[in-house]
Amino acid sequence: MRGKKSVTKCSFVPTSVTIMLLTSMLSACSGADSSQGANGAAKDEKPTEISIFTEFSTPEPPAADNPVTKEFEKRTNTKLNIMWTSSNALAEKQNVLLASGDMPDLMRIIDMKQVQAINMIKQGAFWDLGPYLKDYKNLSAYPKEIMDRAKVDGKQYMLPSVRPLQGNTFFNIRTDWLNNVGLPMPQTLDDFYIALKAFVDKDPDRNGKNDTYGYNGKNWNNIIDIFNKSNGKWKEVNGKLVDTDLEPGTRDGLVYLNKMFKDKIIPEDFSIMKTTDFENMAKAGKVGVQSDTTEGVFRSTEGAQKLDPKADFVAMTYLEGPQGKMVLTGTGFTGLYVIPKKVPEAKMKKILALLDYGASDEGFELACFGLKDIHFKVVDGFKTTTEQAVKDSVSQSSFGKIFEKYDPYLWAYRVGMPREVFERNKKIVDDRANYGVSDVSVGLFSDIDLKMGPDFKKKMDDMKTKVIMGKEPIESWDALVKSYKADANYMKMIDEFNQAYQDRKNSK
Q1: What does the alpha-carbon distance between residue 412 and residue 410 come to, in Å, rounded to a whole number?
Q2: Chain-wide mean pLDDT for the chain?
């Protein structure tokens, strides 16, 4: 497998739409007078030192002396020590920091299912930010639906790294390959399989070699989701939560994926590939389907276009399984931030002020586009990036992981994307609202799941992988399901999730 680091080309990005309104560079946040910085601090006040643990998915992390970091420090009277971590290493480093207790002032948590973090929240390790958010106009403007999903026991210990509900990670397909093999955009799982098989057998890149895969295997669980018409493990049926791992749809999905593996549609080593491996495979023109957000896959398109200028990954609007058409709706966030209780209250408020500035039009523009005339220029109403933006790793995939402004079309655009691709993506985002399926379990907790859930999940995931790769027959999955149905703790876990679900519905 081969891959190259992506380089963002100088191209057009919208400024007149809701994504990024170009704002005049006023003194600071609304309400601050000329004697204050963006976070309300007096200009002669000593900068607040803030350590941050976060991730990046640009080719390289921003350097310590990055000009965007320096500008944030200047505008907010802070001194930032940002510990950038690649997506590949995020989970491991996060767990080490949590276990050590030596946590930074602001720490990124991958999702609501991080058992270690949830247990620490319940033990009082982090600030409940809810009572303070009303004082920060940009943070308090985040949609209530998203904020509620990030609550634990009804309290806002976690501040979501807000993202749109539509445009979430799903399948993206090379339409130029579809044209080359004479097939339309797939609509059903059967259509999907036919297209992927053609990408293996019919030389879709026209290079005369049998060297392509249909699908790189990233997020293969989404195939099972389509069979169940669910967004993950849980779905609502007649007012109750059902564990889809025990449902026939999961079994059918495993059979489908095993056939993919036998037909060499997915790589032999898919189960051990890293996030960057999947993307590099797409950039290298080796695969016809990649799983990513509607805009995120543009990195793969740019990479593939270096080999074939016609390369074009297009986000699929939906796929139809046995239970109907669907696409995955996002939770409204990718990651969450917590502030340890060891941070003094006064400093915690300054961290919130920093994040509030980052959630403003001006702050979010700085995070995603950098400095005008250095990292971007405005041409015909569109921002156009410079090579310096690439060198400085300025992107929503770096600083935009920390500083968040809610925008429903955030996942429709990416720096360097042509206007026509942005407009196409906006329509896909709008159309997906007709087919979206949400993860109904976000924000629900079970005591047994916190204690035993990771072991239950590991056994299931291991068996799923073995069945897909043909190392175990489908009957082994049947036996595992039967054993869980007979496990009192497992069944009690289902009951606890249902109780939490009912409690949440009754509290509305």
Answers
A1: 5
A2: 90
